[in-house]
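Would you be willing to look carefully at the protein I have copied below?

:::
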Amino acid sequence: MTVAVVPASGVAADSARAVAPSGSANDAPVVSIPATHSPVDVRSLALGILAALASVFALSWAQAFLVPLLIGIVLAYTLNPVVAWLEAIKIPRVLGTVIVMASVIGAVVLGTYALRGQAQTIIEQLPVAASKFAAGLARMRISQTGNLQKIQSAATEVEKATAQAAGGSVAPREPATHVIVDQSKFKLSNFLWESSRGAVGAIGQAVTVVFLVFFLLLGGDTFKRKLVRLTGPSLSKKKITVQILDSINASIQKYMLLMVTTNVLVALLSWFAFHWIGLENAGAWAVAAGLLHIIPYLGPAVTALATGMAAFMQFESFAMALLVSGASLAIATVIGVFVTTWMTGRIASMNATAVFVSLLFWGWLWGIWGMLLSIPIIVIIKVVSQHVEQLQPMAELLGD
């Protein structure tokens, strides 16, 4: 019996059919040889991994420079429509930029000044709250220790009764040995020194961001025109660059509008809940809840812990503390899961898994600032990937 071997490629198959005898072609079964695959380029893969690790290291090393820069760019994108509107009604761009920046800084200062009394009261009550909270935990520990001692006594009596019934004697128990581990003590002076250094650094970065936003708003579309000019004489490349910049602008503005809306909603609902429960300084706690909600996951947790301690200090009841903390967490969860997730999907058309993975990565890399900037960064990456052919797989991976 004759077996005809047919290669996988089309040209080789035609040659094989031409060489094979015409009479035996119908009688012989056909066996296809699978095409050979090219081996994986290990050198390219290794170079890609090394390049990715080097990029991550560079991003971590340049955090002090990149974080204020990105914050300034995001804020400039957010405030630019207001400046453009003022310029459209015949107000010079320099004057419009000064008006917008002065209005934002003035609103922050006036809001802080209006809540200074409640904030000062909260700060003055912190030592008393800490002592009461520690006393409450000590009472709970004593109560649990008493219950454990009762259970242990009951178990000892049962053991004695079992040993007597078996006719044996009960061996006396040796006292337990307590091991004391010497731990480093917390020093308030070191904590205050580190906190003051952190506050000075934060103020310096805030001033840097303010000046950066001012100059970006003052420049207007200057950088946009320069980027378009740098793409070369090709009209298609210029068109793609303009589309990318416009899409980034629109996406960041929509996201910032989303963030402002959700934070205001969290503050209003928190004020209503705290006022209904009877928590003192409800307005200050509501503003703190709205501001901390900017930080995903971590901000609501800090708000719940702080408001729970304030409620325990006021009511001296763990039940009331749990009620206030639970209300704060419930509001943040409802707004974050239903409102923020839905609106983010509508704005950026991204799946929730990609957003969460981006949050984990940038939070691990840059901490709280990375968590704040994670969504704008992934939005920019998705917009660029949609308009660049080589990055289409990335856009498909991030899309919903």
Remarks:
- Residues 38 and 329 are 55 Å apart (CA to CA).
- Strands lie at 4-6, 30-32.
